[in-house]
Amino acid sequence: MSTESCRLDLAELERPALEAALDARGHHRFHAGQIFRWLYHRGVTDPAAMTDLSRDLRTALANGFTLSTPEVVQREKSVDGTEKFLLRLADGRTIESVFIPDTPSMTFCISTQVGCAMACAFCLTGKMGLVRNVTAGEIVGQVRVLVDALNMRDTRFNIVLMGMGEPLHNYDQTMKALRILVDENGFAMSPRRITLSTVGLLAALEKLAKEPVMPNLAISLHAPTDRLRGELVPINKKYGVSDIIDVCQRFPLKRRSRITFEYVLLAGVNDRPEDARRLAKLLAGVKSKVNLIPLNAAAGIPFERPSDEAIDRFAQILADHRLTVSVRKSRGRDIRAACGQLIVEGQKKSAGQQLAVMI
Ligand code: SAH
Questions:
Q1: Active-site residue list
Q2: How far is the CA of 203 from the centre of ligand 1 (A)?
């Protein structure tokens, strides 16, 4: 084996793993915290510049470890300030990450997979199929790159795992990334500033309920009945609406926190008054809030965005049933950075095939 292949990638190590690696090489474990602070607090990636480490340790880091960082290949800015980053990973695959300013906070929308296997009927990423999982280092790497590129080292930001991919279909790497993001020597983020959005993979949700690091949860529901949801979100044939609501009812929530239910509004499909009434009934016993997402239309997506009146009417029915409702403002549509519009050409696979494998 060459020395190159024995090198550990610092980006892929949680702090306990880095402590163990240092220990195995005859260095003190506590240096892991210092190295983390260089990487994540200060954004310094060259061991030679980590001046509070001994010369020996700096040399050992330079010779015994690598550090992969996604490379920015393209950056596009929307008229509304939203910026989309096309990032190249170590194996040449590409993903997109989006910066959404002033929502009112600063938000990074991060990808957890190259493509996605879920094949939701209205989502462009779903058309790609799943190419591969994004590693924990690459998930955190997107945050490192955006912080640097946007000069945001001293600015607070939120993270939404709503980019390409289904985070719970890449469970272990997503959780590992969350642990690095919340590590006090890592990005030191509060889990409350991180939102994980999922179609609702049941077994993974049950597992998430027991995690020590608990992000906010958003469920992509999109329909109140199995018949309708089955048409829009294929995985619903495996995990139905009542299963999801049942897990959500049992999900351990911190005081005053609630589960967000995302609902893409599609004209004439799921935006009728009776759909709103059914949705209200379904969520009656859940600590919830509803986020309506008027469809971001795109070529190849066989649906239309409802009229503003239909959107208002739908929201009003939910509000009349005492649900908290918000309507997501579409951001970055002119640069195809809005929800469901992230797609990277040239690495498509058959979505149908991928989903068959999963189920
Ligand atoms: N796989 C995860 C996260 C990715 S997408 C999930 O499904 O939750 C984040 C949100 O954007 C999801 O609610 C998704 O359903 C929604 N979305 C996908 N395509 C969209 C489109 N064309 N218009 C509006 N929202 C879309």
A1: 96, 339
A2: 20
Ligand 1 center–CA 33 separation, angstroms: 36
Q: Which helix (H) or strand (E) holds 308?
A: helix 308-320
Which mutation among 264, 265, 292, 329 tests ligand 1's pocket best, with the greatest number of atoms within 8 A of CB? Answer: 264
The neighbour count for residue 37, using CB atoms within 10 Å, is 17
CATH number of the domain to which 31 belongs = 1.10.150.530
Check if the beta carbon of residue 125 is closer than 8 Å to that of residue 342: yes
| Nearest ligand 1 atom to alpha carbon 163 | 4
Mean pLDDT of all residues in 171-188: 98
Q: What is the pLDDT of residues 28-48, one digit of tens each?
A: 999 999 999 999 999 999 999
Distance CA 115, CA 133 (A): 8
The proportion of the chain whose per-residue pLDDT surpasses 70, expressed as a percent, equals 94
Question: Model's pTM, two decimal places?
Answer: 0.94
Q: What tokens appear for 279 in the block?
A: 């949705």
Structural domain harbouring 39: 3-66
Number of H helices, E strands in the chain: 13, 14
Contact indicator for 293, 314 with CB cutoff of 8 Å: no
| C-alpha 339 – ligand 1 centre gap (Å) | 5
Pocket of ligand 1 from Cβ distances under 6 Å: 118, 120, 122-123, 162, 166, 197-199, 220, 262, 264, 293, 295-296, 301, 339-340
Question: Look-up: residue for tokens 């999922």?
Answer: 198
Q: Do residue 188 and residue 312 come from a single domain?
A: yes
Residues 41 and 123 in one domain: no
Q: Whose CA is nearest to atom 19 of ligand 1?
A: 340
